[in-house]
Automatic annotation (TrEMBL):
InterPro entries the record matches: IPK, IPK_sf
UniProt keywords, alphabetically: Kinase, Transferase
The protein's name in its UniProt record: Kinase
Gene3D superfamilies in UniProt: Inositol polyphosphate kinase
GO molecular function: inositol hexakisphosphate kinase activity
Amino acid sequence: LGPGEGRAAVLLQPFVHQVGGHTSMLSYDEHTVCKPLVSQELSFYESLPLAMRQFTPQYKGIVSVHLKKDSLGNLTLIASPGLGQPDSCGRLDSAGGDPSVTLWHKCKWASSASSEHGLVKWSHTQVTKTFKDSCPGKMLLRTDLQYHTDSLLEDANGKQPERKSYNPWGLHCHRQHLNRMSSKHNENKLQQFLLLENVVSKYSYPCILDLKMGTRQHGDDASEEKKARHIKKCEQSTSASLGVRVCGMQVYQADTGHFLCKDKYYGRKLSPEGFRQTLRQFLCNGNQLRTDLLEPIILRLRALLSVIRKQSSYRFYSSSLLIIYDGQEHKESVDHHLPFPKTHGMNPSRVDVRMIDFAHTTFKGSKSNPNPTPYDGPDHGYIFGLENLIKILQNLLEGK
């Protein structure tokens, strides 16, 4: 057997709950996402301080991915488990007898509002022709994923584009990523991807707020031009005044059965007051303000704050903070997803707070730190943002 053979290749699907960022996140299996490997991010996960583990996705290893073009010119992304992957990840692949699967893409995206969760409906159609060259003797699955672009057209009130049955941002990133890969990489070139815990897998209707934290966004390796661009973005947004800005959001609207989606361009334009209103909107399910979530979110943010204050030399430039809750309030979402209701002490699992995106994170002893002189003390820009975030949520809780 050659490398990676004997185990089924894995179908990489666009991760439909990506609300921010510019790197394409792909779905590896139900509980795992993957993204292109950046050595600085890997370095962070490999030496993650114990206290931070509950606030970051679990790191699950590395997987090799390669790009394929079929005879029709469709681009496919295939992950080969078992290449350069820690043993603990062996259990990640589904039953060994799976047909080899690949990802089909022709930028013909589709959402179906009528699907069970009002999310994307994937229609899998078996492809009878076997591609001898890519996976000898194995069947390929083709994933037809269409995204009706007519839903992007505004209605008379200009309301339509933000009401989607799922978030289009991930597909936007994914399309760009495939185009970049196809122009840069020849077909069989293996690219390494990081495997990370899918932190929203336990939610039926994940409501996600992606916040870019801190007063500085550029990494130490940024060119002068990029540095200037990032500084300007910070000055013109709430990053300068509050140390935090909205980078993306999806909120399930119980009244319409759709997700309300906002992207980073929306977030950049917000004033401090607009930022407060957006936080409020994030907790509105179309019928009411979910005030029951404020206290658990604040508790979790306070716990994170005390951890960040203790991390000397860490600078989380350009990283994001996710605030997550389930848009479905009924008890059956607990019953049918979890074998037992999870409550971690003070943190009922109905809310979660996680830090993500560490490609520009630097710390003392990092193998891939572009800045050889480590910083002293904790990340004050990040702390400033967290404190302001807590203050605003506290005011909401007190009905101000």
